[in-house]
Design a protein that fits this description.
Family: Belongs to the SMC family. RAD50 subfamily.
Order of helices and strands: EEHEEEEEH
Radius of gyration: 16 Å
Helix content: 10-25%
Distance between the termini: 19 Å
InterPro entries: P-loop_NTPase, Rad50/SbcC_AAA
CATH topology: Rossmann fold
Main location: nucleus
Strand content: 25-35%
CATH superfamily: P-loop containing nucleotide triphosphate hydrolases
CATH architecture: 3-Layer(aba) Sandwich
Number of helices: 2
Shape: globular
Number of strands: 7
Pfam family, one: AAA_23
Organism: Emiliania huxleyi (Coccolithophore)
CATH class: Alpha Beta
Number of domains: 1
Length: 149
């Protein structure tokens, strides 16, 4: 059975681009609670993005999904989502998606970089494969044993 183990968020919405925030999912249940505006929805949106590659609604083609560079007096913010899960066959897998938001003179430019999938063989050796975003969008749901949304 598939289970989600960890989620690391860096540079997404209100999460700092300078350090990753890691959420450990306990079995059999993890509750996410907090005040309004503390990032609960961002956690769910980051999980959806890691699994399917779909941006949340109303995020202006990704520009409102990445932390705003002007808040940090920078021209570029790099963001990353890492999701560690156990696949349908019991294999540990880490899905890594990286993004950037660059402040141009009059507009912001969002980029999604090639994504990576890290798997571990029976001896515990790490294997890292780079994928085009579209390929990973199909592969992760298959590894989790779920249909596409």
């Amino acid at each position: 059975m598939t289970s989600i183990e960890k989620l690391s968020i860096r540079g997404i919405r209100s999460y700092s681009p300078n350090s990753a925030q890691v959420i450990q999912f306990d079995k059999p249940l993890t509750l996410i609670v907090g005040k309004n505006g503390c990032g609960k929805t961002t956690v769910i949106e980051a999980m959806k993005m890691a699994c399917t590659g779909d941006l949340p609604p109303n995020c202006k083609s990704g520009q409102a999904f990445i932390n705003d560079p002007s808040l940090h007096d920078q021209t570029e913010v790099k963001a990353q989502i890492r999701l560690k899960f156990t696949s349908l066959i019991g294999q540990p897998v880490v899905c890594v998606r990286s993004f950037s938001l660059t402040q141009k003179a009059t507009k912001k430019e969002y980029k999604a970089f090639e994504s990576a999938l890290q798997t571990f063989d029976s001896a515990g050796n790490k294997q890292c494969l780079s994928y085009k975003c579209a390929d990973l969008n199909k592969l992760v749901p298959e590894m989790m044993g779920v249909s596409q949304a």
